[in-house]
Write a structure and sequence with these properties.
It is built from 14 helices and 15 strands. It is an alpha/beta fold and about 400 residues long. The strands form three sheets. Strands 3-2-1-6-7-8-9 form a seven-stranded parallel beta sheet, with helices on both faces. It has a six-stranded parallel beta sheet with strand order 12-11-10-13-14-15, sandwiched between helices. Strands 4-5 form a two-stranded antiparallel ribbon. Helix 11 links the parallel strand 14 and strand 15.
Length: about 400
């Protein structure tokens, strides 16, 4: 079998109603699958105000709004209507991208029908409770995730560091890599626009520290703010440029009143914003990959990041940027101070970062997941059942 024989049922907790790096990667992948001649059907919550048009056929799944985070929805069941749709579609592989109730039911459906299942891991859900005063729940959530992923034939992670963590957590015996690509037409140093910076009241000679991403607390906004406070105390000349939107924007603006907030940017506008920074500061520990880090690297920026999954697979310490112990405010400030004061060090690390980003083309990374699909289907056909837990 090749890609033309694939009939993939993809289950997602957020395929297109809120824009983030994970669902954009899924949409790109579906586009690639369709281009290769595969047949795809996507099952996900939908809203009347989607963030973007979905790739492929999208079927709405029953869902409810997350309490306190109403922009997100939880698909809570595999309804009779969805079961009938699945039966009519006749998939030969199930892909689950979120360990939510719908994802669990999809895996059970696949096992009941003898179909192989591949799960993609997009975020470290087990770390989320610590940002809401519920860190004691992390072992329980990790246990739930382990049960979910062990019932799949294979799981894929977006970085080698995340894959290794999943192995250490005993999530599955078959852990592969489905990394992320970069659109070099959008993200490159040529997008740098000093006139655009000046329009935001940023002088040409002022080093710009960038933040890119959804404005939610689990992205490390508190660590970012505390680190910037130290630079202010040290009287280090800089400007903070925040690109993104989210429910914590008001909190972030109150903490960083001198920062420039551009709101959400996309396409060439996002490329311009990223290339017009001088360095990226990414203190988050929740990413499994870090799309924004790769985008910044492609634009020739050094990155100061938390030493965590995702960033460790992209940033080479002392070469393309700095990797700092999570939460080490003083060390983060030291690294940013060096890049603010030493333009040569900044330029050298940026050049190395751009060279590293050249490895990630979308077609190459998406074909790796197609190859995983074909392998697990072939293994099932040969009677090689998944080495997972015996949970039905």
């Amino acid at each position: 079998m090749d890609a033309t024989g694939l009939r993939v049922a993809l289950f997602s907790g957020n395929y297109n109603y809120v824009r983030d790096g994970a669902n954009q990667a899924l949409n790109r992948f579906v586009t690639y699958l369709l281009r290769q001649g595969a047949t795809v059907r996507v099952y996900s919550p939908t809203t009347d105000t989607p963030a973007f048009e979905p790739a492929g056929d999208l079927v709405s799944a029953p869902s409810f709004a997350v309490p306190g985070r109403k922009e997100y929805r939880v698909p809570h069941r595999l309804s009779a209507k969805l079961r009938r749709d699945l039966k009519a579609f006749q998939p030969n592989l199930i892909h689950v991208s979120s360990p939510d109730p719908l994802g669990h039911r999809a895996v059970s459906w696949a096992r009941a029908h003898g179909l192989p299942t591949v799960a993609s891991v997009h975020t470290r859900f087990e770390t989320y409770p610590r940002y809401y005063g519920l860190a004691f729940l992390e072992p329980l959530i990790e246990s739930i995730l382990r049960r979910f992923y062990r019932r799949c034939d294979a799981i894929v992670a977006p970085s080698e560091s995340m894959a290794q963590l999943l192995r250490e957590q005993r999530m599955n015996y078959d852990v592969g890599i489905w990394t992320r690509g970069i659109d070099r037409e959008i993200f490159n140093p040529g997008r740098r626009d000093l006139a655009w910076r000046r329009a935001l009241d940023i002088a040409d000679d002022v080093p710009v520290i960038g933040f890119i991403g959804r404005l939610v607390m689990e992205k490390g906004l508190d660590v970012f703010s505390d680190t910037v406070d130290q630079l202010v105390t040290r009287q280090i000349q800089h400007k903070v440029l925040v690109v993104g939107e989210g429910p914590a924007r008001e909190w972030f603006q109150n903490r960083l009143p001198q920062a420039v907030f551009t709101g959400f940017q996309k396409g060439p506008d996002l490329g311009r914003a990223v290339a017009s920074m001088d360095m990226l500061f990414n203190p988050s520990v929740t990413e499994t990959f870090g799309n924004v880090t790769l985008e910044a690297m492609a634009c020739g920026l050094p990155t100061v990041a938390a030493r965590a999954t995702g960033s460790e697979s992209l940033v080479t310490e002392g070469v393309t940027g700095r990797l700092i112990r999570p939460g080490a405010i003083g060390n983060f400030a030291d690294a940013l101070q060096t890049y603010c004061l030493d333009a040569d060090a900044r330029h050298k690390a940026g050049q190395a970062a751009q060279a590293r980003a050249e490895r990630n083309g979308w077609d190459q990374v998406n074909q790796a997941l197609v190859d995983t699909y074909l392998r697990v289907i072939r293994q099932r056909a040969q009677g090689l059942s998944v080495r997972s837990s015996p949970v039905p």
